[in-house]
Amino acid sequence: MSKTDIVSSFVEAAPPGELSNVIADIKALTIDEPSLTDSLAPAFKKYNEEQFSTVKLPGSSQPVIVSEFNSLGDGRYFDSASQSSFVFDHATQKASDVQSHVAESQHSDLVKSLIKSFEKHAEEHYPASAIGVYPIENDSAIALVLVANKYSPNNFWNGRWRSLYVYDPSSNSLTGSIKVDVHYYEDGNVRLLTTKPIKASSSSATASDVIRQVATVEKKYQEDLNRAFTQLNEGAFKGLRRQLPVTRQKVEWEKISGYRLGQDIGGGRSR
């Protein structure tokens, strides 16, 4: 594996909201090889499209999504809701050169209805979210993309929810996946990465029924995650060690030499 491949893998695996930190570390580690950073354009593109990176267009307050589903090629992407296209710089994550763009589709009315219903769903359930609805596969299907980010670097954690659904109007079927990525890094490094394949169907071809099915599968997955976390906390984690010492206080590790090992930490008798 070449150095470029290794460094590219760091970029592609960057946790939510931490791409700039990863890039800064790469530059510091490769200070003697500045050209190495210049070779990362493909990695930046892959990261932004796979992570559904968002950007606010000049003069707009609403974020739009960057993905393979709304790519026009040569670094240009389109947004169905604003009926515009834009150039996206994958290295700086900035948008420019906004132009009018109407995606021609036999499902244009359905796309507009889906945008309206999907936006309402996102606003009700996800803070700091963005959605996209795009005709794909030679206009035979519609991609519905949702991304919700929540960053809390002061508390040493960041998280991202990504939903992708491909809706087939001819069969009313939905296929896709839900991905959750959470990174916690206070005095350690813990990361949760999950992928849930989705296969469902809508009761009718109306936008409201399609989004109702989306809401159903997302609610169920959130409930499944909550149950899994509860079981993990009450089961496996407790089996590893007690949550607090017998003093019921967190251990101050820099003062560990002053603790009485048996009584203060282990709970047994000291000698």
UniProtKB/TrEMBL annotation:
<dbReference type="InterPro" id="IPR042276">
    <property type="entry name" value="CapZ_alpha/beta_2"/>
</dbReference>
<dbReference type="InterPro" id="IPR042489">
    <property type="entry name" value="CapZ_alpha_1"/>
</dbReference>
<keyword id="KW-0117">Actin capping</keyword>
<comment type="similarity">
    <text>Belongs to the F-actin-capping protein alpha subunit family.</text>
</comment>
<dbReference type="Pfam" id="PF01267">
    <property type="entry name" value="F-actin_cap_A"/>
</dbReference>
<dbReference type="InterPro" id="IPR017865">
    <property type="entry name" value="F-actin_cap_asu_CS"/>
</dbReference>
<comment type="subunit">
    <text>Heterodimer of an alpha and a beta subunit.</text>
</comment>
<dbReference type="InterPro" id="IPR002189">
    <property type="entry name" value="CapZ_alpha"/>
</dbReference>
<keyword id="KW-0009">Actin-binding</keyword>
<comment type="function">
    <text>F-actin-capping proteins bind in a Ca(2+)-independent manner to the fast growing ends of actin filaments (barbed end) thereby blocking the exchange of subunits at these ends. Unlike other capping proteins (such as gelsolin and severin), these proteins do not sever actin filaments.</text>
</comment>
<dbReference type="InterPro" id="IPR037282">
    <property type="entry name" value="CapZ_alpha/beta"/>
</dbReference>
<protein>
    <recommendedName>
        <fullName>F-actin-capping protein subunit alpha</fullName>
    </recommendedName>
</protein>
